[in-house]
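Why this split exists: single-chain examples teach little about how molecules sit against one another. For that reason, every record in the complexes split bundles all components of an assembly together and asks for one structure covering all of them. Below is a record exactly as it appears in the raw files.
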Amino acid sequence: MDEFDEIARLYRPLTRGAPEALDLLDDAAVIPSRPGYDLVVTKDAIVAGVHFLPDDPLDLVARKLLRVNLSDLAAKAAEPYAYFLAVAWPTACGFAERERFAKGLAQDQQAFGLRLFGGDTVSTPGPLTASLTVMGWAPSGGAVRRGGAKVGDVVLVSGTIGDGGLGLKAAQGALEGVTHDEAAWLADRYRLPQPRLQLRQTLRDHASAAADVSDGLLADAGHVGTASGAGITLDLDSLPLSAAARTWVGAQPDPCAALLVLASLGDDYEIVCTARPSAVDALTTSAATAGVRLAAIGRVTAAHGLAARYAGAPVAIQRTGWSHV
Amino acid sequence: MDEFDEIARLYRPLTRGAPEALDLLDDAAVIPSRPGYDLVVTKDAIVAGVHFLPDDPLDLVARKLLRVNLSDLAAKAAEPYAYFLAVAWPTACGFAERERFAKGLAQDQQAFGLRLFGGDTVSTPGPLTASLTVMGWAPSGGAVRRGGAKVGDVVLVSGTIGDGGLGLKAAQGALEGVTHDEAAWLADRYRLPQPRLQLRQTLRDHASAAADVSDGLLADAGHVGTASGAGITLDLDSLPLSAAARTWVGAQPDPCAALLVLASLGDDYEIVCTARPSAVDALTTSAATAGVRLAAIGRVTAAHGLAARYAGAPVAIQRTGWSHV
């Protein structure tokens, strides 16, 4: 099977007939303008052995790749629209593996309202490498940015923090201090994050700034501060934790140090956002209606930089997150 | 230097302050709609050792990556606008090499009118792998597509054919039958293709269909036929050749077989297009005014599939181009 047969069999069905994709028969996709809307575009890449485990099932890898990009759209309050895929396949990956990857894409693009508009498949002597360019729409000027936080704003985060990072360790069989069931639950959280797209309207209506938590809460909250020209102070004892993460913290000698680890791990794909104090009730109520719990975890400050407190006292931060360079 | 310092030093300058890029401080770029225009989007990936030689200078690699994507925009008659970059860096690549790559991007984005809007840098245990998503604008409905050819249209191609493929062999030191200077010229054509963006207005005004010649003339002309629901017949003796390619053909035992090889090699990044017979004069005159020679090389036919002739007689086609799977 050559490249063109593979495109026809595996990828053309993923366009679902979108006219923009030109049946993947052309040099490019053609996207009509949508007056009154901005196109929100994000691009992330993943490498086997770096961003996922080499023996992770490829349908899950594809779904995670879609989801980590969708998490960026969620943080901008954008509505999913389309994606472009580039995959470098190791020659050892046969049709069955490529088909499994495409099936993962099909499953999640359906769930999240995306269609494939184009891309490229190439071969590599190295590990499986894929990059996705994902596009969404936001009403003109309505994309929520990292740079909108104001001094005095409350910092909030969705869901629970630290599960993705603990889940990576669990998936590697290297996590101690939790039950077998908790380890399995955490590994699932790592392998298949839930982009918080249901927060779109909530963020657009009530948040002053937002980012997704991919590099670790401390790092990503810090980015909101930097982009906003302000500082961020987080209260570690306010971090929302899953039952499994609470079990893990309970097994550590120093709870403050353990919370700092959880706030430094990546792969949560939650949303960290800020809001005026007067908007916090409306924000959390709207989020709850959308099925997501938002927890207040800190403040935007006039002092630049990131600070953390535990039991009201300052905590030194050594590491603000993983960076995948 | 961490990922964020690297972004600030190497990549933020490539945004040239474009507001869409949000200083690369955000989760995504935000592109305002441009009523009356379509956004034309292409995505290509390259892998060291597959699409470029492992010891090619990284500024040239970056420039070629931009140019192969720009060639897709040229074929659609789109005006270059922006790009998103994902790079997987081998850990052995230090800052000097990354800087050289960024300098190549800076040089060519300036020459071709692009700005960087976002992307991702990751590490890889494998070869350097990069993917680019390039965007351009075309007046609404004005992007020239592969699917517009009609039976009876003339097939034309820009510049000269086969130089890129011969140039690859020359760059590997494996090309015989040409002079030293010709080999060097061909290797340059391979390393640094010239996207035919100056044909934009010409194609929009006079062409019925167009594609860029990246996989080989036969393959790409064949794609125009397939997308148009028609066939293509090419006259191999009409292929426009460079002086170096003519030298090479002259050194081969069978000129027809040699022309078939040139028409099957990839990496030309010329434009193959079609036009109504009545539009051919205006098309070629307009192209000449833009500084590009277009040669008539065949016809669009009612019989599906791709056919070739030499000295008026049919020629069997064994291979229609390289596919990088």
